[in-house]
Write a structure and sequence with these properties.
Two copies of one chain form a homodimer. Helices cover 42% and strands 20% of the residues of chain A. By secondary structure, chain A is of the alpha+beta class. In chain A, helix 5 crosses helix 8. Chain A binds a DNA duplex through helix 7.
Amino acid sequence: MRRTGDVLGPLVTRLAAIGSLTESDIDALLALPYTLREGKPGWEIVREGDRPSQCCLILDGTFGRFKMAAQGAKQIVSYHIRGDLPDLQSCFLPAMDHTLSALTVGTVAFIPHAAIRHILEETPLLGAKLLRESFIDSSVTREWLCNVGRRSSESRIAHLICEMFTRHRAAGHVDQFTFPFGLTQVAISDSQGMSTVHVNRVLQKLKANKLISSHAKSKAITILDWEGLQAVGDFDPRYLHILH
Amino acid sequence: MRRTGDVLGPLVTRLAAIGSLTESDIDALLALPYTLREGKPGWEIVREGDRPSQCCLILDGTFGRFKMAAQGAKQIVSYHIRGDLPDLQSCFLPAMDHTLSALTVGTVAFIPHAAIRHILEETPLLGAKLLRESFIDSSVTREWLCNVGRRSSESRIAHLICEMFTRHRAAGHVDQFTFPFGLTQVAISDSQGMSTVHVNRVLQKLKANKLISSHAKSKAITILDWEGLQAVGDFDPRYLHILH
DNA sequence: CGCCGGTTTGAAGAATTTCAAAGGGAGTGG
DNA sequence: CCACTCCCTTTGAAATTCTTCAAACCGGCG
């Protein structure tokens, strides 16, 4: 990867992981205008109902998109890490139908819609590579639906860990089988449609079965048995559409 | 709506429901090349793993996209009716990550990827209107995830009925509060992550509470109490992004 | 030191699944 | 035209998973 020292390097890394990029693609991406911003857990970058004029590129940290159901129930519909463009849709649908917020400390770059539209209209081949990111995001949401709808709680959480490991690995975030996992058990429960208590018990079970271990201090997880975890989680990475 | 007698009229109706179309947009859409095909329940139009070279426009019937989880568990991730373009993503992601199949008898038009790509590249403004359909599809999937993850079974099914009613109404398929609903209870259970037995009981409860009534013969549902059904289903149609 | 968010534990209760079987309606073949 | 079959719906009852509630614990930080 060239010039990953650039601020927008994570975007290049991400798009390169899911499609091929030409030199001029990379130049165009790295030349995008942006504004940097940092925040702590709970920071709401865009809220349901907002009509943003810029897209958000995740540079560091873990972010989530969520919707509220009746009686304060929260459903996190996706997690986002370095290189993700979680709200490209806002270029196409004016009003946000969910909220994007920070789950850990993190940094994002805001890229004006106008700059994105310019790419989509003037260089549609590069535009298609950006859109691919969004289509993969949809694919991930479908897999999550499958997870919540049809997998046991143990399988669900194993699947989530497999997914986050695979995505962090593609983002170059992984040391062997250890990767950053700053999600609280509350966040996990809100994404998997279960209670916090149950998340806690399932995590204990995964640890007891020597599939994972966690390091509270470093907020990281180590996968002890990758094959076993994938089997328990019914995990097949094809839905992530990451090039091999 | 002009020229809705045209075979591709449902596409025009759909895109007009979610965005404005110019005369030349309509002409370009109606001039798209296509192949017609009909099928019965169980017909698999595109399968997981396929690399199709055309997109599928639904002209009649109800279709579903589904994924398989371990041990034969099926998760339906979306329903599709007249005017939907359920696999526009196949223009961007070569391999299908799910299967599209017919849930009732139905008719589709296949439109070659090349023709879609031509629109996206040559008339990006019209292309954006096509893409909007896909972004709304993602929004619907997120709402389903919220449904399955965080709503009670009664709320879930009420929500589903509200959604299908609203979509059918936008497609011009509705007579007062009666609309075609050809889904079996098995299909409902596979989409809502519950057992068939439970779906049956919840439907009985909705009927007992005078929220809906069903007509087995005509495979249709009548909503008896639209306000009440929306309240039970925690339904807010904004996620459908249908213009008022 | 004490607070605070997050994690862990126990126990009771509710929602939902599973299993098993019967009932109903539409279409098919004899 | 009847009998038969198939798919879908409906019912009952037991078993299980998961939630809820309530409280304790734990570690970092002001």
